[in-house]
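Input protein
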Amino acid sequence: MAEIAASHTPDHLPKVLAGLVVLLFLVPYYHTHHHAKPAPGPLVREEPEITPLDGKTVWQVKGYSMTALASCRLHARVLHTERYYFDRESDLSPVDLAVGWRGMSDSRYLDQMDITQGGRWYFFEYKEPPLPNEVISAESKNIHILPATREIASQVKSVQTHQVVRLSGSLVKVTGPDGYIWTSSLSTGGSGDGSCWVFWVDRMDVEN
């Protein structure tokens, strides 16, 4: 009994506490960064809802003017996430999400593709096309997320591949005082330069 008691003397207490801190950190880290892959089948069957606006709604954020071009409601599977820290846009948009719906939310097809992001772009590669390229472009999108609140910023920074999310807000045109312009696509399809959404998100829900 004396030896057991000795292992719990105050001299050893910092080590015990340090171990507990490590465990408390690792448990949420594991669950956050190891989200289970969904079973085959489309997770999202509906397309995004985009409603053009008159462009008269303008507000200021960090010295930039935001002009609402369209309202947008999105239900989609997260295909990949990418954090940005050092480009000009990172102060407004710290995260890009690559998302998909319909066929591009189905593991049967996604398992045959390699999806990556970089330089504010979204890329996909495959040995044999699991879906026609025009379907891939029409049912997936790279999104520059502009979180409206700190809570949404925290949510989007922690969201993981394979999760299903609901986003709502506005597709916007961003204008800087030096003439800088960053304009959202208003289409659910398309590829190449100008095809991404610049999405001011005022609500975000993670379903799984």
Residues 1-34 have pLDDT under 50 and may be disordered. The first strand starts at residue 49 and ends at 52. The longest helix spans residues 13-33. The chain has two domains: 2-33, 49-206.
